[in-house]
Amino acid sequence: MKRIFPFYPPLTTSIFAALISLVSAASSYRRGGGFFFRRGGAGQLSPAAPLSATLSPDDQVPTIDVAPLFNEDAAAEERRECVDAIGRACERFGFFNMVNHPIDRELMAALKEEMVAFFAQPKHIKMRIKRNSETSRGWFDDELTKQKMDWKEGLDLGKSNGRWEGSTLDGYNQFTESERFNDLLKAYYGQMERIASKLIEALATHMGVADPSSLAPLFAKHSSLLRLNYFPPCPDCDEYLGVSHHTDGCAITLLLQEVPGLQVWLRDKQQWVDVQPVKDALTVNVGDVMQIWSNDRYPAALHRVQANPSRERYSIPFFFSPQYDAIIAPLPAGQQPRYRPFRWGEFRADRIKGDYVDLGEEAQVDRYRRTEA
């Protein structure tokens, strides 16, 4: 068996058999062969907490015009104001919606059309590219978040060491049977790479890094993931979540969404806030790597996805992550670092395992936090 977790023992068939036994014994529904756990359990974060309807407009996730970042003719002051708005949003919310980005709208529409057609296929066709013990890439309906099954299906693809081909820590890609769909996925991925790189540079500027472009080499052969999510209607939304609360194991996430359901935990209000979709916008959130780079100035956003009783929901997140050998450590000069340095691939390997089966401790970046911090 190929080994896709080089820092730890490989996931074996017996582990996956144990997962099936675990899930079968749990209180669950079955949908098309997938398993879904109830909400309750250790670590569940106030599912009944008040939502954003009780909050003021200032407590809503902001929408930011990012055109100055991508317009070479934009005035320096416009760029500074844009960077400051992004930084402030990441400090408080860890989220913002960005409009006037350079994504091709026709590409977005075509990709969404192919995505809907893909998930509408019979399960036995999607099973041909089911992710497995040799690769974390492909179709799935059994992902875990907080050791609980998500109420969703998904399709994962991405580059490894800067290439679509080959097998590395994340395994290998399993493309769909539609060449048009595959071409659209690659084209969209390429546009996400360029936009995410610009946002990383903007945040480095805001946090005062002497050379904001110095992070670019860490993404030269990045390990970023493009995911397509399908959330079917749920028969009991009081008991089930589309995705349980979590932070993203990446630097930043760029999300395309059209149907409500995404929520972020607003720390200063101790409430869940709806992240409402904005037409033609991309929703951006801070991940674990950016939290460490900023030395906690931009906390990784705790978020979840609510299930919907009658409406289907589709989303496309792009998780922008460094290359496997990148050393992650706080960047701001003149500050006491709150985290010890670590290699990105080590954390990534543990995070992948947590997506499959409850192996005990969930992989979180707090394991690298300095005790004296």
TrEMBL record:
Q: Does the keyword Iron apply?
A: yes
- Listed GO MF terms: metal ion binding; oxidoreductase activity
Gene3D superfamilies xref list: B-lactam Antibiotic, Isopenicillin N Synthase, Chain
State if Oxidoreductase is listed as a keyword: yes
Please provide the record's keywords in A-Z order. Answer: Iron, Metal-binding, Oxidoreductase
PROSITE patterns, per database record: FE2OG_OXY (PS51471)
UniProt superkingdom: Eukaryota
Which segments constitute the Fe2OG dioxygenase domain?
Answer: 221-322
Family to which this protein belongs: Belongs to the iron/ascorbate-dependent oxidoreductase family.
Q: What is this protein called?
A: Fe2OG dioxygenase domain-containing protein
